[in-house]
Amino acid sequence: MEKEIIIRAESDETMVAVIEDHRLVELYIDRADEERLTGNIYKGVVENVLPGMQAAFVDIGLNKNSFLYIREVLPKTAMDGENNDVSNVEISDLLKKNQEILIQIVKEPTPSKGARVTTHLTLAGRYLVLMPTVSYIGISRRIEDEEERRRLTAMAEKICPENMGLIVRTVAQGAGEEELQADLKWLKSVWSKIVNKSVHSKGSKLIYKDLNLLSSIMRDQVTDEVSRIIVNSQETYDSVMDSLQFFPGDYKKRVVIRDMMEVFEEYDLLEEIKKAGKRKAWLKNGGHIIIDNTEALTAIDVNTGKYVGTTNLEDTVVNANLEAVEEIVRQIRLRNIGGIIIIDFIDMEKPEDREKVIAALANELKKDRVKTNILGLTQLGLLEMTRKKTGHGLNQMMDNECEYCDGRGRVFNPSMICLQIRHEVNKQAKQTEAAAIRVEAAPVVIDYIHHNKLDVKWEKETGKTLVLREAKVGGNDVVVRPEFS
């Protein structure tokens, strides 16, 4: 697999595109006026302890208090990383009002909710993740070779600081103890600065700011698979070279400066980004998937569309589902979909066919750096899976809620809007001395009124003259008011 990273850094925005085999698979956008908070460490003050929710609200100096659940306060067991049973523990035994604690943001705040936080702090390096408050050794699940896992586990146990934890990252495959030691030395120095700043700080305060987008991409994405890193300017080139200076290997030779207009055209990036904002994604065989995001979960529906197959129905269905798997995973990564994901594959009768599709999905998800978990099929044949939420989804970065449909994606049809207009016209007719009533609505609504002669009907009902005007409004918006001559 050929992998390329494209970086366009401007004063107001940084955009990073990850290309695999000439296709856009991941997109990151960091704007100067939209600060990323995930990974930041704060000294917070407990504002409210809620025994009924087994949670607490913590003031960390943002507009809304952050939310801390009991499982993010309890210590984790030494080797499995799982939280202890919470059934016999009360949040009020662990936290008190006005208590100062060190926490880290794990989920970005939204307009309606504060950030989700944890006391289980993590500091990510090139090869290792240091967990200063957790005694735990872990190896990336993406490292599958058992001998390599044993080798890395032995090294991690040897170098791990007392009463701390380490996770060995995927990129550490083949790395020696010297490289891991150097990474750990840097992480320990970062932790030492955090502790020192926290001790000398009072009240709610930012203690540690996580790496910016460009630096985190260099840390997390640059592996031997990357053939080129394409940047837009000398300034960006210098920043990338600074980030790569401690990396072993010839990564610096892979960095090139190119004109971004040419790059965007070569990879058809603008069109791919535009497609990522749509509900429907087409498959090569003529089928398609529909992606719907809700507050609770993301639903993905697989359809055969124009695909009719060449053999029997069972093979057609299985092949359509297998074709969909690759695009589903690509869209999940590209749109950065997190949380609960429900996939409605085309119904398959044979258990072996269902297992084949699930196995294909699991294999394709190995390309995803973000932690995923396939839970299996429900009794209705829906596949359940989860994906860790990391920052904002692409739709949040690219879209604004529609002012006409309130984010529903649909508006009332003209008939329903006219029902509202009729009510308002009758209401205004009873309240005003004016001889006429003015109605402003979208052109499609005015056309509907004329076509169905509703204005004539309403004039007879009210005894008022109706003045109809096309307004520069859309969707459900209407204006009904008295018209004085």
Model description:
The protein is α+β, with helices and mostly antiparallel strands and 485 residues long. The protein has 4 domains: 3-34 and 212-271, Nucleotidyltransferase, domain 5; 41-208, Nucleic acid-binding proteins (OB fold (Dihydrolipoamide Acetyltransferase, E2P)), CATH 2.40.50; 278-398, no CATH class; 414-483, Hypothetical Protein Ychn, Chain: A (3-Layer(aba) Sandwich), CATH 3.40.1260.20. The protein contains 13 helices and 24 strands. It has helices spanning 91-94, 146-159, 177-199, 213-221, 234-244, 260-266, 269-275, 313-335, 351-364, 394-398, 414-431, 443-451, 454-462; strands at 3-9, 13-20, 23-31, 41-50, 55-59, 66-69, 100-107, 116-118, 123-124, 128-131, 137-139, 165-168, 205-208, 226-231, 255-257, 280-282, 288-293, 297-303, 339-344, 372-377, 383-387, 436-441, 465-470, 478-483. The strands form 5 sheets. Strands 4, 5, 6, 7, 8 and 13 form a 6-stranded antiparallel sheet that branches. Strands 16-17-18-19-21-20 form a 6-stranded mixed sheet, covered by helices on one side. It has a 5-stranded mixed sheet with strand order 3-2-1-14-15, with helices on both faces. The longest helix has 23 residues, at 177-199. The N and C termini lie far apart (73 Å). Residues 77-81 have low confidence and may be disordered.
